[in-house]
Design brief:
Helix content is about 50%, strand content about 15%. With about 300 residues, the chain is α/β, with parallel strands linked by helices. Strand 1, helix 1 and strand 2 form a beta-alpha-beta unit. The longest helix has 28 residues, at about 165-195.
């Protein structure tokens, strides 16, 4: 099949290459034409503009949008809406909030343009091992695009989750779970790092990958990180969040479903961005006031 890919960043660029390896034709575009040139070197067809990309696609035209979620994605979809025709398909593979998918699909209905949300997990390793794809769309659109999904994903690595919005909903919860898993690993390894024993944390992470009930790909990546930097001295204790964890917590509130682990892991990401936070200083002050506990002055 021939597909248009808009966005050639860490994910989009690798997805283009995986599709090419699978025998598909890809028309690639991003504003940075040096990235387009690199895609062309690997076998893609380059586009100088969104209009150029659309012109190079056969009908029904399939365009995968892989740009930052939010306004950038909305602007691109608005742009494409003016260029595409009834029967064409827009796929949003970014980390969009599922309610925005529903709104967009409804807005596209009068034009006859189809919309698919494709929650995409795999990061920079997707080129090598494939992408886990969680898809929301009408069944006939899923069948149309399935050859592309099959190439991007590992065996059994893609799923039609339901109607528009369901793919990104599942991806949202996926990322919320990821927050909790990461926090549990981080806390456990810190306990071992602070213990009386001189433990080789990288080897322990490797050990736990051998049949342990806590083995996972995240643990495998943890082992790689610890081998590169055993004390993690090269990293700052600052952890960003891309939105899905917040949305998962919001959804748990709306549904009255308790999710204390995910909620707390999100809060701890916020805490990681504070240096000498006021609330921590207040805790120290209260302990000093009620118990005469020793406190540390700033800078000591």
């Amino acid at each position: 099949m021939r597909i248009g890919m808009i966005g050639l960043g860490r994910m989009g660029g690798n997805m283009v290459e995986r599709l090419l390896r699978g025998g598909h034709e890809v028309v690639a575009y991003t504003r940075d034409q040096t990235k387009v040139a690199k895609a062309v070197e690997k076998g893609a067809l380059g586009a100088k503009s969104v209009e150029d990309l659309v012109d190079q696609l056969p009908s029904p035209k399939i365009v995968w949008v892989m740009v930052p979620a939010g306004q950038a994605t909305q602007d691109m979809i608005d742009h494409l809406t003016k260029l595409l025709k009834p029967g064409d398909v827009i796929i949003d593979g970014g980390n969009t909030k599922y309610k925005d998918d529903i709104t967009r699909a409804e807005a596209l209905k009068p034009s006859g343009i189809h919309y698919m949300d494709a929650g995409t997990s795999g990061g920079v390793w997707g080129l090598q091992v494939g992408y886990c794809l969680m898809v929301g769309c009408d069944p006939e659109i899923f069948k149309l695009v399935e050859p592309i999904l099959k190439t991007l994903a590992p065996p059994d690595g893609y799923l039609h989750c339901g109607p528009v919005g369901s793919g990104h909903f599942v991806k949202m919860v996926h990322n919320g779970i990821e927050y909790g898993l990461m926090q549990a690993y981080a806390e456990g390894f810190e306990i071992m790092q602070a213990s009386r024993y001189q433990l080789d944390l990288g080897r322990i992470a490797d050990l736990w990958m051998q049949g342990s009930v806590v083995r996972s790909w995240l643990l495998e990546l943890t082992a790689l990180a610890l081998k590169e930097d055993p004390a993690l001295d090269k990293l700052a204790a600052y952890v960003e969040d891309s939105g899905e964890g917040r949305w998962t917590v919001e959804e748990s509130i709306d549904l009255s479903v308790p999710a204390p682990v995910i909620a707390l892991s999100l809060q701890l990401r916020f805490r990681s961005r504070q240096d000498n936070s006021f609330s921590s200083r207040m805790l120290a002050a209260m302990r000093q006031q009620f118990g005469g506990h020793a406190v540390k002055a700033v800078g000591k």
